[in-house]
């Protein structure tokens, strides 16, 4: 079961200007920034209530986020939902016929264990499943 | 200030199949459905933690959602944030240089007072401000 919206991921060309924009828009301060080598992105997080807004800036042309921006431009990239057990959810979703990008959970940003469901199965919405790796 | 993510709006061609998909994906039941005549949409809501997922299906070819789907296909359409006072936020954002779609709050779905900020100003993210009209 999905417990909450963990974050919404937004692809941007320039993290610094996105941070300035969102700070002005929301009147919220930035929570933290992080470099995720595996995805070749710099990310920033803003806490909004019980969820986060995550901005992702590619650090190389090979980054999945660079390819996304090249194809679609900047904008909302994915929705991440918190679940208790990513592996269990992947098994359930696979049986239900959902197409999975990751069939095995992997390490993500923000100390999370994650996996993505393919947007083909979800009305073109890229869905991330998240579980705290510290639990 | 933004208090929380009120909902994420997702444009779909067929509300019934989107509801079935999201119920299977999330293991959550549908909260409610509603027809919004002013926007020519049928909408459904799922409660996920402190936020909602809103699916929007156009009821006519003139609906803004029909035009969005024609141009971009199905997918995430907007993010709505809860604020205490939409009018006050619009004034603040206008002064800060944000381009507004609505300069005056209007009635939206789910008993909310709403207004949209133009995606030009927000890294191509369509942002909705929401305030409970019952408060």
What's the layout of helices and strands?
The structure is a homodimer of 135-residue chains.
Chain A: E1 4-11, H1 15-26, E2 32-36, E3 41-48, E4 51-58, H2 64-72, E5 75-82, H3 86-95, E6 106-107, E7 112-117, E8 127-132
Parallel strand pairs in A: 1-4, 5-8
Antiparallel strand pairs in A: 1-5, 2-3, 3-4, 6-7, 7-8
Word description of this protein:
The structure is a homodimer of 135-residue chains. Chain A has 3 helices and 8 strands. Chain A has 135 residues and is α+β, with helices and mostly antiparallel strands. Chain A has one domain (2-132): Roll (2,3-Dihydroxybiphenyl 1,2-Dioxygenase, domain 1). In chain A, a hairpin with a 4-residue loop joins strand 6 and strand 7 (112-117). The two termini of chain A are 17 Å apart. Chain A binds chain B through residues 1-5, 8, 10, 12, 18, 21-22, 24-28, 48-51, 55, 73-76, 79, 81-82, 93, 96, 98, 117, 119, 121-125, 127, and chain B through 1-5, 8, 10, 12, 18, 21-22, 24-28, 48-51, 55, 73-76, 79, 81-82, 93, 96, 98, 117, 119, 121-125, 127.
């Amino acid at each position: 079961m999905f417990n909450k919206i963990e974050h919404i991921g937004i692809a941007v060309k320039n993290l610094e200007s996105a941070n300035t924009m969102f700070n002005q828009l929301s009147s919220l301060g930035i929570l933290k920034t992080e470099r995720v080598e595996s995805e070749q992105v710099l990310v920033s997080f803003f806490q909004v209530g019980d969820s986060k807004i995550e901005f992702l800036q590619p650090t190389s042309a090979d980054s999945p986020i660079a390819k996304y921006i090249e194809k679609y431009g900047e904008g909302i990239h994915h929705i991440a939902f918190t679940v208790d057990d990513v592996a269990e959810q992947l098994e359930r979703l696979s049986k239900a016929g959902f197409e999975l990008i990751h069939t095995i959970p992997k390490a993500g940003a923000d100390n999370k264990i994650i996996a993505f469901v393919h947007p083909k199965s979800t009305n073109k919405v890229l869905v991330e499943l998240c579980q705290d790796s510290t639990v």
